[in-house]
Amino acid sequence: MESVLVVSGLITAGGGLAALLVPLVFLRLGFADENPANVSLFFVRHWGVLILAIGGLIVFSAFVPTIRVPVLIAATVEKSAIGLFVFFGPVRRTGVMTAIAVADGVFAIVYVAYLLGL
Length: 118
Hints:
mainly alpha
C-alpha cells in the first residue's frame, strides 16, 4: 500500500501545485475559462494549496502508518467530492476535469478498500 500512497499522493500534490502556480492554465484546461476573474484565480490558488497539502499528507502517511487512517478518510472525502461536483454539478464538464474526477474516484475506491481491510 505504501507505493500506492506515494504515487497517488504525488499525483495529487502535482495537481495542487499546478493549480497554485499556473491557475490560468488550470482554468483554461479544466473549465474552458479563457477570461477568469481575479476572484477565480484566488480560489483556484487556494484550492491548489489545499490539494497540495492533501497530496503531501497522503505521501507522508505512506511512511507514518499511525496517521494513515485519518489522512485517508480526509483524502477520500476530498476525492469523492470532486467527482460529485464534476459529474453532478452545474459547471460544464471538460475532458481534463473528467479525467481528474475519474482518477480521484479510483484513488478514493482504493483508499476505502484499504480502510475496510479488503
